[in-house]
Write a structure and sequence with these properties.
Elements lengths: L1 H13 L4 H18 L5 E3 L4 H9 L1 H4 L11 H9 L8 E8 L5 E8 L16 E5 L9 H12 L3 E6 L20 H14 L5 E6 L1 H13 L7 E5 L5 H10 L2 H22 L2 H4 L8 H5 L4 H13 L4 H8 L12 E6 L12 H6 L3 E6 L8 E2 L8 E2 H22 L29 E2 L8 E2 L6 H9 L12 H26 L1
Parallel strand pairs: 4-5, 4-6, 6-7, 7-8, 8-9
Antiparallel strand pairs: 1-9, 2-3, 3-5, 10-11, 12-13
Helix pairs in contact: 1-18, 5-18, 6-16, 9-10
Pfam families: Abhydrolase_1
Family: Belongs to the AB hydrolase superfamily. AB hydrolase 4 family.
InterPro entries: AB_hydrolase_1 (IPR000073), AB_hydrolase_4_CS (IPR000952), AB_hydrolase_4_sf (IPR050960), AB_hydrolase_fold (IPR029058)
Length: about 500
């Protein structure tokens, strides 16, 4: 109803030629929304000297977040991001990194407008940030470009890791990116630390699937991590919880997000990369069956299990989840999530695990959608991304801390403050995760936590195919969201032109 009423109001006001008369009304409504919808992020953290220092420098985390007035729920925030709203143009210089198994990933170095491509090689002492994209993404993604542009404004050297097959990266082996394997990130971080940032601060920022892999990597590395700090944005945390939400939620959620995600993956597999050529003669993967997949569950059952040696999709999704690795993170980590995220639902956020680790700060906003976090303080101002500003603030604070600790020859993060063995936060029994144990056919750095799913749940997940009818609502609501957002964007652009001429 909110969508219908607001879109009707905008359409009604825009039909009048005397639009200046109604500009005041819209300004009043905008002010009401600006102050009523705004709220401070909910923070979960242990009070330590480090977290206090970080929050003093990150003012946006302790101030109110004002969502854009016409993007008043998670669906609109997410759709607006996907529609290709205006983002800065970023120039990249590409570097290829050959992996130990013969695979290939690409590193796109962001070049500031006033610099040349030699800028990358000439600034080994400059603080560097590694950006990790989401599923089937790359350096071209809107949220990646916005973060890169904001970080460059703050003096950071930015590099984007494009996963196997993504962003026109050639595929050399019969293997695409894996949502559970962190070997590629590990090799890239080692490469960056040795070649590009031997002494400079090196941070990483992950988005969606990239943030999940990043957190898992941090938990696996523990005290040996080569990164100085990290940021996780829109992390799914629990792959099984996300699957249950996307597959068994409303018809709109199932079609708009889950089916669209599957189509995007198949397009990458068959059209945008050459990975399908390596599977043409694969002994266990049926290419024809892959083309008929309707969901990511089907894709994982047809390909992932056979390529990576999992016994079931449930086992693979357990291995994908980064939540069990949060207790083992030993470097400063900021996690940003939104309660209204329609993809990575808030029920998957491991609040207790974040509270139990003195290195982690979890910030949860009421609005923001999936990677959107749009904000704006004017009715005609174009939406800006709040998360990019937070990332830049946090990275700046960590840069100053790392530099000061390096100058003072301070010990590692894990050897300062309270010992993890004497943690003042009591863990809830239901949330205790076992220490990950090595397993898997790929390498000794892959882990799987020992808790097994109940047999009845496994049977239910294996047999379910359709969306329960009693949880279906009109798909027209999602279509109306997309139309409404695009219409408001066009109206705002038209009004800005009229104001300039006036």
């Amino acid at each position: 109803m909110a969508i219908v009423s607001m879109s009707a109001m905008v359409a009604f006001l825009c039909t009048f030629r005397e639009w200046r008369k109604y500009h005041f009304i819209l300004c009043v409504l905008n002010c009401m929304h600006y102050y009523c919808a705004a709220s401070k992020p909910t923070l979960y953290y242990q009070s330590t000297p480090l977290t206090k220092q970080l929050l003093e420098h990150c003012s946006l985390l302790v101030e109110k977040y004002h969502p854009t007035w016409f993007l008043f729920n998670g669906h609109l925030q997410t759709i607006f991001l996907a529609l290709g709203s205006r983002f800065p143009v970023v120039t990249y210089s590409r570097e290829y990194v050959h992996l130990a198994d013969g695979g290939l990933v690409s590193l796109d170095w962001a070049i500031p407008p006033t610099k040349s491509t030699s800028y990358v090689e000439q600034h080994h002492d400059q603080p560097t940030v590694l950006l990790l994209h989401g599923t089937c993404g790359g350096s071209w993604e809107n949220y990646i470009r916005k973060a890169a542009d904001k970080l460059m404004e703050h003096g950071w050297r930015v590099v984007v890791m494009n996963a196997r097959g993504c962003a026109k990266t050639p595929v050399l082996t019969p293997r695409l990116f894996n949502a559970a394997d962190t070997d590629d990130i590990r090799q890239v971080v080692t490469h960056l630390r040795r070649k590009h940032a031997p002494t400079a601060p090196l941070l990483a920022v992950g988005f969606s699937l990239g943030s999940n892999l990043l957190v898992k990597f941090l938990g696996e590395e523990r005290d040996k991590c080569a990164l100085d700090a990290a940021v996780s944005v829109g992390n799914p945390f629990d792959a099984m919880e996300i699957y249950r939400h996307l597959h068994h939620s409303s018809l709109a959620t199932h079609l708009v997000y889950y089916r669209a995600m599957t189509k995007r993956f198949l397009k990458l597999f068959f059209e945008e990369s050459n990975v399908h050529e390596h599977f043409a003669d694969h002994p266990t993967v049926d290419i024809d069956k892959m083309k008929k997949c309707d969901t990511m569950w089907d894709v994982d059952h047809a390909m992932t299990l056979k390529v990576f040696g999992y016994k079931s999709v449930v086992e693979y999704y357990r291995d994908c989840s980064s939540a069990p690795y949060l207790p083992h993170v030993r470097i400063p980590l900021l996690c940003l999530s939104a309660k209204d995220d329609p993809v990575c639902v808030s029920t998957a956020i491991p609040v207790e695990d974040c509270l139990a680790n003195k290195h982690v700060i979890l910030a949860v906003t009421e609005r923001g959608g999936h990677l959107g976090f749009y904000t704006g303080d004017g009715i005609l101002s174009y939406p800006d991304t709040w998360s990019a500003k937070v990332v830049a603030q946090y990275c700046d604070a960590m840069r100053d801390i790392v530099v000061s600790r390096t100058n003072c020859m301070s010990p590692s993060w894990s050897s300062t403050g309270h010992s993890d063995d004497n943690n003042p936060i009591e863990r809830l029994p239901a949330k205790v995760h076992p220490v990950p144990q090595p397993r898997g056919p790929l390498s000794p750095v892959r882990f799987q936590h020992q808790n097994s799913f109940p047999s009845d749940l496994v049977d239910e997940l294996e047999l379910c195919d359709g969306v329960p009818l009693h949880r279906v609502f009109s798909f027209g609501a999602a279509v109306a969201c997309a139309y409404f957002v695009k219409k408001v964007e066009l109206v705002a652009t038209s009004w800005r032109g009229r104001l300039r001429r006036a």
